[in-house]
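Hello, quick one for you while I still have it in my head. Could you read through the record and tell me how the tokens relate to the sequence? No rush at all, and the record is pasted right below.
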Amino acid sequence: MIVNILRFSFKDGIGPEGEEAVLAAMRRTATVESVSFSTVGSDLGDPAEGFTHGYLTGIADLAALERYMYDPVHLAGDFDIIPRLARLHAVRFTDDGDPRIGSEIFAMHRRKLAAYPEWEKLLDSIPDSQLT
């Protein structure tokens, strides 16, 4: 299982409707067939860390992760979500014992950046992000 946790906060001025639109897009992404389990909601951590919400997905294996990364729902959702974020930090972990899985996931991410340069620009536009 590969678990992806995103902690995030919204840009100033997004408003409740904009926030709900982001959360709805994340919920759609979290329900694509390659996701085994998911949740989207309020971040319960220390408010001083600056995060307001979290997104978690569990994905069975590398093949499912690749389907997830290129799923049209995921691709479209990012263009609704990312422009509204001020902070986005990722934590990933796995119960897979293969020592190469981290480098394989990173290589998969690099291939997606190469395939979708507009997506890379979008990610780079987040004022405070730690994704790798």
